């Protein structure tokens, strides 16, 4: 099966899709005897991969290019060029599906509601309804997304994280609980505004000397400045923003932490969470991160409502828990990632999913 993955986003380490898609293509080509996966980027970018990739400026809407593929997968939704490509695919009877990566989640649809409502009605509903299916990253994303009457499939994110097992011992933990946020600095999407309110409440409750909280990530200049000013406003020496970190620096940051925190309003399946759990970090999350079912079934962390008071309660509970309890959840987190998100295991599921879509089947 020749698969073409189309991406509108920039391919960069700080971008979830940019982090996931190149790795996914590499792993599919490495482990599958049935899939030959390629990448088409809407924007010209300075990249270099060991698989086939193309730029839209070079191939444009040439039918012969697209006819060489058995299935086209659009990653994301709201890109105007997607509409023209989808129309060409339909005319040439080439199946395509959409992997929204959280774009269909109800709370994501509420952002710029009027603009999206008009755009959906005039343009994108047709693009979606004429597709051969929607691919979600897990059941939580499907359940929390806007309903469309097309076939639905599940394809989990895998992870190839070539770092050694950070074996943790209860005696290695420091007295203070060490929390880490390592993701994009985006106040709305990542719920940083509500997270900061929770930290303000925690400070008012007198817990500042019992924990540390480190923010890592890259965002707009406006959001980064807002974060720094907000942390100064809380006035706790336990809170710091360190900027972005990648590779070995990221691993070092994980090793110096006890609990990973992500309080997003909406997500597909965050790669940052998979990386943290791979490094034996249990997670404090809100429902928008789309791992509610995983937290409940595999005991990999704590799920709290997306409210400042509830998030603060979650922090307080963790601060009072023993290091042995945190260590156990961290062990569960790593076991979950290794068992459920290993590329070798997932490739077979992707083969079945793509075959179903191409043949017109359903999940």
TrEMBL record:
* Transmembrane domains' residue ranges: none
Q: Which InterPro entries match?
A: Glyco_trans_1
Gene Ontology MF, one: glycosyltransferase activity
Domain Glycosyl transferase family, which positions? 170-324
- A Pfam family matched in the record: Glycos_transf_1
Please identify the protein, giving its name as recorded: Glycosyl transferase family 1 domain-containing protein
Organism encoding this protein: Comamonas testosteroni TK102
């Amino acid at each position: 099966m020749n698969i073409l993955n189309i991406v509108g986003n920039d391919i960069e380490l700080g971008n979830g899709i940019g982090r996931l898609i190149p790795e996914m293509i590499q792993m599919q080509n490495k482990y599958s005897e049935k899939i030959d996966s390629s990448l088409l980027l809407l924007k010209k970018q300075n990249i270099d991969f060991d698989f086939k990739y193309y730029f839209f400026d070079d191939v444009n809407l040439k039918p012969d290019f697209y006819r060489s593929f058995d299935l086209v997968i659009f990653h994301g939704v709201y890109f105007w060029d997607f509409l023209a490509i989808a129309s060409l695919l339909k005319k040439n009877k080439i199946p395509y599906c959409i992997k929204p990566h959280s774009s269909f989640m109800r709370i994501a649809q509420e952002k710029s509601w009027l603009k999206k409502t008009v755009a959906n009605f005039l343009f994108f509903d047709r693009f979606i309804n004429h597709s051969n299916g929607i691919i979600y990253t897990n059941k939580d994303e499907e359940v929390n997304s806007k309903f469309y009457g097309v076939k639905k499939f599940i394809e989990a994110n895998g992870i190839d994280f070539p770092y050694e097992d950070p074996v943790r011992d209860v005696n290695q933990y420091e007295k203070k609980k060490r929390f880490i946020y390592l993701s994009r600095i985006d106040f709305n999407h990542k719920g940083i505004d509500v997270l900061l309110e929770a930290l303000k409440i925690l400070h008012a409750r007198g817990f500042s000397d019992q924990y540390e909280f480190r923010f890592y990530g890259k965002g707009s200049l406006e959001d980064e400045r807002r974060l720094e000013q907000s942390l100064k406003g809380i006035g706790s020496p336990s809170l710091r923003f360190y900027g972005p970190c990648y590779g070995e620096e990221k691993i070092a940051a994980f090793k110096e932490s006890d609990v990973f925190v992500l309080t997003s309003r909406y997500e597909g399946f965050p790669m940052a969470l998979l990386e943290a759990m791979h490094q034996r970090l249990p997670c404090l999350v809100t429902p928008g991160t789309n791992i509610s079912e995983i937290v409940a079934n595999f005991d990999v962390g704590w799920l709290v409502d997306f409210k400042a008071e509830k998030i603060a309660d979650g922090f307080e509970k963790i601060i009072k828990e023993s290091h042995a309890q945190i260590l156990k959840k961290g062990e569960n987190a790593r076991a979950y990632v290794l068992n459920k998100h290993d590329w070798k295991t997932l490739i077979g599921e992707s083969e079945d999913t793509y075959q179903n879509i191409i043949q017109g089947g359903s999940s």
